[in-house]
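Predicting holo structure, iron/sulfur cluster bound.
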Amino acid sequence: MRVSVDLARCDRNGLCVMAAPEVFQLDSGGLRFIEEPDEELRPDVEDAVASCPAGAIALLDITTPPASASGHA
Ligand code: SF4
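Done. Tokens:
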């Protein structure tokens, strides 16, 4: 999964940090987050998405193609 945050909408209230502290962090530079967190953190990230009053967090499903998927002949 991939996490995206619209930092222009983020008001730094820290609710996502409380929901998913392993993914989101607030410091003097603002909000920081892991763009591709472990799948096991999905429930926490979903809680963060739901808790964000600004609607700034997006959770995107990404699929990683298998290493043997090269189609060049
Ligand atoms: S919950 Fe939303 S508005 Fe609050 S710090 Fe996180 S991304 Fe920003």
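The mean pLDDT is 91.
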